[in-house]
Design a protein that fits this description.
Blueprint: E1 3-9, H1 13-25, E2 28-34, H2 38-46, E3 52-54, H3 57-60, E4 66-69, H4 76-83, E5 92-95, H5 101-111, E6 118-119, E7 121-124, E8 144-147, H6 155-167, E9 171-174, H7 177-203, H8 208-213, H9 217-223, H10 230-239, H11 241-264, H12 267-284
Parallel strand pairs: 1-2, 1-4, 2-3, 4-5, 5-6, 8-9
Antiparallel strand pairs: 7-8
Bound molecules: NADP nicotinamide-adenine-dinucleotide phosphate (NAP).
NADP nicotinamide-adenine-dinucleotide phosphate binds near residues 10, 72, 126, 131 and 232.
């Protein structure tokens, strides 16, 4: 696989890391960046992530055979609209947005129809850092990338997007847009809500200084993701509100049950819940425990 000109719109953690990984793999000739802040883009040039940039989306996508959109979900629609009529005939458009139904709706609204060379995607990788300075070439090594090709997607475009991610060391799978949004609501969006909700609740308690002074170990691990970009997460919640609301309601029931079990002092049931959770985590998350 070879990319002649890659345009990255939103040269942050996700977009910048893709550019770095493709450069490291030697599969891209030129990388053009696009974004609002000159400081971030100048830094991306000096770090060797991009070769040049434009603040104008229409100008940045000119002549590109691969366009990767990695702006927050709330900026997708305007970004697509700005590239309308400016794309090369062979240009493939893909994205890294954390929810997929909203991105597809935005593309439809912006282009008037779904472009044949549009293949939505989502790398299941990230950190709580953002901006070009946070980007690194290994981010996608051995990580999963989900593509959600549409009925309108040209199979050749899907093959090229798959090859692009594989060149970054990722394992690519495909699923429907709806299934993606349900799975990610459960595995990523819900845990982020728990972290944000927990830290916010504690921070608003009177004794918060005292509480945070003694926070360590488990609290630090569990709440690391509450340091993630608030704008990005606001957009994800709005974009995936149906699936996420369903997950939150189911989880609230689980918590109410747990509270009830604790209030009853039902030690046997507590042990049953914790053992079930431990064995599921050991099996699925750590592949045998740690
Ligand atoms: N972080 C993760 O863990 C993760 C994982 C998977 C997918 N994603 C998805 O990847 C996308 C990018 O996330 P990220 O973590 O890379 O964020 P990021 O580091 O903040 O990068 C986003 C970039 O988009 C640009 N941008 C922000 N608002 C914009 C706007 N209104 N119009 C145009 N450009 C704008 C920013 O540059 P300027 O401010 O200069 O415009 C910034 O460089 C999001 O859609 C997110 O859902 C994130």
């Amino acid at each position: 696989m070879k990319i002649r000109r890659l345009t990255v719109i939103g040269v942050g953690l996700i977009g910048g890391s893709l550019a770095r990984a493709l450069r490291a793999a030697g599969v891209v000739d030129e990388v053009v960046g696009c974004g609002r802040s000159a400081a971030n883009l100048d830094q991306a040039v000096s770090l060797g992530i991009i070769d040049r940039y434009s603040h104008d989306v229409g100008e940045a996508v000119q002549g590109a055979d691969m366009v990767f959109v990695a702006v927050p979900l709330g900026a997708m629609r305007d970004t697509f609209a700005a590239m309308q009529g400016k794309l090369a005939p062979d240009a493939i458009i893909t994205d890294g947005g954390s929810a997929k139904a909203s991105v597809v709706a935005d593309a439809l609204a912006a282009f008037g129809e779904l472009p044949a060379r549009f293949v939505p995607g989502h790398p299941i990788a990230g950190t709580e850092k953002n901006g070009a300075a946070a980007a690194f070439a290994e981010l996608y090594h051995d990580r999963r990338v989900i593509l959600t090709p549409l009925a309108t997607s040209d199979p050749d475009a899907t093959t090229r997007v798959r090859a692009m991610w594989e060149a970054c060391g990722a394992e690519v799978s495909e699923m429907s847009v709806e299934h993606h949004d349900e799975v990610l609501a459960a595995t990523s969006h819900l845990p982020h809500m728990l972290a944000f909700g927990l830290v916010d609740a504690l921070a608003r308690m009177k004794e918060n200084d005292e509480i945070f002074r003694y926070a360590a170990g488990g609290f630090r691990d569990f709440t690391r993701i509450a340091s993630s970009n608030p704008v990005m997460w606001r957009d994800i919640c709005v974009a995936n509100k149906t699936a996420l609301s369903k997950m939150l309601a189911a989880f609230a029931e689980e918590m109410a049950d747990l509270a009830d079990t604790i209030a009853r002092g039902d030690a046997e049931h507590l042990l049953e819940v914790f053992e079930r959770a431990k064995s599921a985590r050991d099996r699925f998350v750590d592949g045998g425990g740690k």
